[in-house]
TrEMBL record:
Keyword list, A-Z: Cell membrane, Membrane, Transmembrane, Transmembrane helix, Transport
Protein's name in the database: Phosphate transport system permease protein PstA
Domain ABC transmembrane type-1: 62-279
Top-level taxon of origin: Bacteria
Amino acid sequence: MNAKTIDKIWTGILYALSIFIVAILALLLGIIFIKGTGFWDPNFLFGSPKLGEAGGGIGPQLFNSFYLLVLALILTVPIGLGSGIYLSEYAKEGTFLNIIRLCIETMASLPSIVVGLFGLLVFVNFFKMGFTILGGALALTILNLPSLTRVCENAINDVSKKFQEASLGLGATKWQTIKNVLIPASIPQILTGVILAAGRIFGEAAALLYTAGMTTPHFKLGSSIASKANPFNIFRPAETLSIHIWKLNSEANLPDAAAIANKSAAVLILMVLIFNIAARVLGKKIYNKYAGIK
C-alpha cells in the first residue's frame, strides 16, 4: 500500500474511535438526564431534604457545593498562578527546580481519597478543626494546586519570547513585563485551567468525605456568623451535592432516595458540562480579544 492509502486507513480509524467516544458520552448523558427527569423543578433545586419523607430538595447541598467552589478557588488560583510565574520566570534550571517539578507531578497523580485522608489527619484531627467547609476547601486546594500550577507555567511559557524581549527593550521591569504582557497574553489558557479545576471541585466527593463531612446544619438566615446555622460560617460541616448522591445510594434513608439521587446526578453533570463549555467559550473570546480577532 502506498502512503496515501495508509493515511486514509488511519484517518478512518481515528474518526471511528472519535465517533465511538462521542457516542458513549451521549449515551451516558442521555441515561442520566432521562433518569433524572424533573431535576429542573425549583422546589427540588432550592428546597430542603425532608428526613424520612418523600419529595425533598437539594438546596443546602447545592449551596454548599458552590460555596466550597468559591472558597477553594480563592485559595487555589493565587497560589497556582504565583507558583506558575515563579517556575516559568524566576526559578533557575537545575536540581532544585527538577525536584520541585517532580513533587508537583507526584502530587498531581495522588488519588483524591488519599488527599481526603491527609485532610482528616491534619485539618480535622491535628488542628482540631473537625468537619468544616474550610477543611474541605484546603483539601480541594491541595488536590487542584499541582495541575493548576502546571497549567499556569505552561501558559506563560507558551507566550512568545519576542513579546517579553520587546517589553524589556522598552524599559519595562521584569515584574511589569510579567504583569502587563505575559499574564494578559496567557489569560485564555489560565482561565481554561481555572474553569476545568472548578468543574473538578464541584464534582469531588472522596476528598470531602473526610474533611467537610456528610451533614449540613439547618440554615437560619440572620444568625450569628459564628453559629453553625449560618450558611456562610466556614467552620461548620457541609454535605455537598456529590456526597449527597453517594449518601443516598449507600444509605437510602428516604422513600424516594433513588429518584432524588438520579435528579441530583443530572444537576451535577449539567454543572460540570457548563463549566467545561464555559472554559472553551471564555478562553476563545479572551484570546480573540487580545489577538485582535473580531
